[in-house]
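Final report, closing paragraph on structural work. Over the funding period we assembled a curated collection of sequence-structure pairs, and we close with a single example.
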Amino acid sequence: MTVAAVSFVAAFAAMEGVSYAAHRWLMHGRGMVWHASHHAPPRGRMEANDLFPLCFSVLGFGLFALAALGALPPWTWWAAAGMTAYGVAYLAVHEVVIHRRLPLRVPERRYLRWLRDSHRAHHRDGGEPFGMLLPLMRRGRRQPGWSVPDELLVRARTRSRRARL
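Its predicted structure, as stored:
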């Protein structure tokens, strides 16, 4: 049971890094063909960007299937479960908390406000932060490491009312 729990938690935690990398280098790279729909004013309930979660879920499904068939070690099933749990958390945060695409009541909590403001800042200029559940910003060359600077909140809160979010 310990291996299962560690596999689940490690995969869930690692997915924030995977999410950051996919968003920064895939979605804001070659994948901008789909992702641009997310940075544009909405045209309906669905957008081309919604194809990304569908593609990413195929990877998790593949791990589940291969682990269930015995082609991979049993712990990989739990890693796939952690990846899936991250996907569910991402979906809830992105669609419910940030974009409010479902008519659900969202509590006003400091962490949820930080997530919303971080995402607004990203939409404002297309730069950092790229993470979702832990949206940290890279510091400049002279200040190595990661931070949650006040400038993020300023960028988010001074955005145009007409900007999409």
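Residues 2-157 form one domain. Confidence is low (pLDDT under 50) at residues 141-149, 159-164. We thank the funder for supporting this effort.
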